[in-house]
């Protein structure tokens, strides 16, 4: 297993984050146990066919899905995406200096932040109530950054 990532301070978390809930984890644990036991039983009975190996492979894949967490947040360095599983920890950072512009769009009680970098960018979702805090963070860490607000009227 890879080492844990050194934690960064989260100034504000995005609602785009995902994690395997307790029920999903329990379901995948049960599926993994069934597939692994079935595959092992088939192998002990001398059945070395494709089905036994497929059950073992799918059982190991189910184990990988049991713990999955995707965190998206804003830190002092910029925008951060982290993915954690039992076997890997990955972090991608979009630094403040690499962002060309930010567009903030509200619709209902939701807020979308689009950070443009070159031709592509990152899209993060927040609650509309996070707008003042987001503006404050951008003003503090990237004061020269162009920020555009879009407020549709429907």
Q: How would you concisely characterize the structure shown here?
A:
The protein has 154 residues and is of the alpha+beta class. It contains three helices and nine strands.
Structure overview:
With 154 residues, the chain is of the alpha+beta class. It is elongated and about 70 Å long. The chain is built from three helices and nine strands. The protein has helices spanning 22-44, 50-66, 131-141; strands spanning 12-13, 18-19, 68-74, 78-85, 89-95, 101-107, 110-117, 120-127, 146-150. Strands 1, 2, 3, 4 and 5 form a five-stranded antiparallel β-sheet that branches.
* H/E series: EEHHEEEEEEHE
CA distance, first residue to last residue:
50 Å
> What is the rounded Rg?
22 Å
Query: Strand count, sense and closure of the main sheet?
Result: 5 strands, antiparallel
Question: Into which percent range does the helicity of residues fall?
Answer: 25-40%
List the helices and strands and how they pair.
Elements: E1 12-13, E2 18-19, H1 22-44, H2 50-66, E3 68-74, E4 78-85, E5 89-95, E6 101-107, E7 110-117, E8 120-127, H3 131-141, E9 146-150
Parallel strand pairs: 6-9
Antiparallel strand pairs: 1-3, 2-3, 3-4, 4-5, 6-7, 7-8
Supply the key terms:
35% strand, alpha+beta, five-stranded antiparallel β-sheet, single chain, 154 residues, 9 strands, four-stranded mixed β-sheet
């Amino acid at each position: 297993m890879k080492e844990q990532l050194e934690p960064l301070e989260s100034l504000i978390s995005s609602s785009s984050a995902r994690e395997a809930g307790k029920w999903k984890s329990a379901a995948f644990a049960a599926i993994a146990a069934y597939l692994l036991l079935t595959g092992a039983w088939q192998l002990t009975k001398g059945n070395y066919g494709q089905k036994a190996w497929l059950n073992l492979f799918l059982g190991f894949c189910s184990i990988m899905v049991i713990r999955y967490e995707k965190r998206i947040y804003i830190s002092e360095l910029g925008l951060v995406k982290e993915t954690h599983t039992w076997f890997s920890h990955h972090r991608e950072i979009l630094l403040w200096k690499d962002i060309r512009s930010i567009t903030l769009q509200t619709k209902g009680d939701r807020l979308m932040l689009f950070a443009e970098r070159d031709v592509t960018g990152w899209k993060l979702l927040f609650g509309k109530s996070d707008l003042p805090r987001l503006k404050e963070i951008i003003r503090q860490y990237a004061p020269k950054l162009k920020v555009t607000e879009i407020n549709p009227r429907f």
